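Entry, Tuesday afternoon. Goal for today is a structural model of the target with zinc ion bound, before we commit to ordering more compound. Inputs were pasted exactly as handed over by J.K., no edits. I checked the ligand SMILES twice against the vendor sheet because last time a stereocentre got dropped in transcription.
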Amino acid sequence: MKKLLFFLMLFFLTNFSFSQEKISGSMSSINQNLSMKKTNEYWKSKLSPEAFRILREKGTEYPHTGEYNLHFEKGTYRCKGCDEELFISDSKFESNCGWPSFDSSIEGKIRYEKDTSLGMIRTEIICNSCDGHLGHVFNDGPTSTGLRYCVNSVALDFDSNVE
Ligand SMILES: [Zn+2]
């Protein structure tokens, strides 16, 4: 009898957790459809683990390690997530901060959000098209714009200008 009760309980418990999972699963896919139109599974299959960590989980690459940190060819930098053009090489400058730095972005391509993580108040920069996290923008730029877009190399792809 005790055994039967145990199996009955197990049955209800597993059934219960299954339906809970179904509910939260469909809720998160609704949220994803609203905010980024793509699932985490999609991004995991499209991006490298490091690009996923940065673009989709708001990570940061180690300073002075990125492919485009000391990269000054003429061309256009695109979003690694959705290929949207974000920055042109003319706006790139050497900031010595360890990440690719730009003094402006291509108009309308980037969204700004207040970021209070890590005990700091910063402005997060996000790709307007795919909601990918790119980095932060600061008000200490040395050029006339006064801005320093500090971007993770891993969040970018580069196209050389075709002459
Ligand atoms: Zn994007």
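Residues 2-35 form the longest helix (34 residues).
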